Amino acid sequence: MKKLMLVVVLLFLSIQMTAQEKLYLLFEFMKVDNEQESAYMETEEFWAKIHEQRVKNGDITGWDLWRLQPGGEDQHFQYLTVTLFDDPVKMMSNAGDFNAAVKAAYPDMSDDDVDKHMTMTPKTRDLAVRIYLEMIDGTEDDFEMPIGTVAAINMMKVNMNNYAKYEKMESEIFKPMHQRDVDNGIRANWGLLRFMVPYGSDTYASHITVDMYKDYDQMLNPPTVADRPAPTAEQQKKMSEGVASRDMKFVYIATLINTHKK
User: Fold this and answer.
1) Which domain of life is it from (predicted)?
2) Which residue ranges form the domains of the chain, and what is each CATH number?
């Protein structure tokens, strides 16, 4: 009986830890005109201190600023901010005391000066697209994402009827391959994200996979691994079926230029 109770307690703790590790992300894609680059950087420097305080206050678990490539004015977006949450309710309701975070970040700044910065924010960039996501799978690693981290952000479009098939393929076929790459130093991290909002057949994409590298050298000059096993015929079949279940719409290469984490 004691052994049974111990198993139940351990199982409960395991479930709690899994719930605590669930990650929710707010992606905000920015359009920034070439002549606004300098002003936009000043805007994000102002906001970075507020987000740092929001992390300290427990409102969010992290915030990142990424520079996107190709990033031309006619190639969608130039920057991406990512805000991290441990609770979907916090994310969707924008929970927390924002004014308290502003006051703590800028205790000596007057209300008028704060208002000026707020007013200037939309003049330096166009917040073009906002996406709410949940992380549904990823590699096991201790990568801490320092400044200079490089990520391939792969925008995937999956038919709503094929979500389960596609996600199963990513987790059962591709994730073990990505895990071996992480273990062998070929990449730093891999994750699979699913759109929460927007949602539906008319959305541009439905999932995002993210391949992270510690720098461009790791991304462009991966080490040769002699024991990298070739996929079996059955694995190749499942890979083909899984790839056929989604359309890779666009790939951004992103460089981390600012970050604050819990």
Assistant:
1) Bacteria
2) 23-261 (3.30.70.100)
Characterize the bridge pairing of strands 24-31 and 62-69.
Answer: unpaired
How many other C-beta atoms can be found within 10 angstroms of the C-beta atom of residue 72? 9
For residue 193, which of 215, 210, 216 has the smallest C-alpha distance? 210
Give the pair of three-digit tokens for residue 134. Answer: 């949940």
Q: Which residues have a Cβ under 8 Å from the Cβ of 61 and sit 6 or more positions away?
A: 23, 55, 84, 85, 86, 261, 262
pLDDT band for position 228 (cuts 50, 70, 90): low
Alpha helices (H) in the chain, listed in sequence order: 2-20, 37-57, 88-93, 98-105, 111-124, 163-169, 175-183, 216-220, 233-244
Buried (b) or exposed (e) across 127-163, using 16+ Cβ within 10 A?
Answer: eeeebbbbbbbbbeeeeebeeebbbbbbbbebeeeeb
Judge whether 212 and 187 are in contact, CB under 8 Å. yes
- In order of 65, 187, 242, 261, the CA distances from 258 in angstroms are 5, 21, 35, 10
Q: Tokens for 13, please give them.
A: 């703790």
Are 193 and 208 within 8 A, CB to CB? yes
Mean pLDDT is lowest, of 128-137, 150-159, 176-185, 238-247, for 238-247
pTM of the predicted model, to two decimals?
A: 0.88
Amino acid residing at 172: E
Beta-bridged to residue 8, according to DSSP, are: none
Quote the CA–CA distance of 262 and 258 in Å, as a whole number. 14
Please tell me the distance from the alpha carbon of residue 191 to that of residue 136, in angstroms, as a whole number: 8
